[in-house]
Design a protein that fits this description.
three-stranded antiparallel beta sheet, 132 residues, alpha+beta
Length: 132
Amino acid sequence: MRPDEIVNGRPTRNLTTGRFLKGHVPHTAGKKWDDWLTKDQQKKCLEAGMKNLRPNPNVRGWNRRAVVAVDESGKYRYCESAEKAAQITGLNARNIRACCKGKRIHCGKWRWFYFDSNDWVKFVNEKRNDGF
């Protein structure tokens, strides 16, 4: 524990989580960088942050997969992701993904499939062959 974290013999932070204890406020609370960092220090912080950035597959958007919506007549529509399809159709993206995973049969008036699976091609061919 650093000496500046002890006031009157008592710690100012929780020893387990590192959060400030009640009644102890950090010196930077509510202040902008300009108030407590020089321009050179700000630049160093930004450069270090940019250097340490790496693609994170757990962040929203990195795991997106293209989806296909197929109606009962066999017509299909391609979308870049379930989120984009939800914006276009006004449906829930989670329900679209559940359809793609096979947990739901349909969402809205369409059956939904991941574009990289062949299930949607088989479904379209079946629907088109049913009409003849």
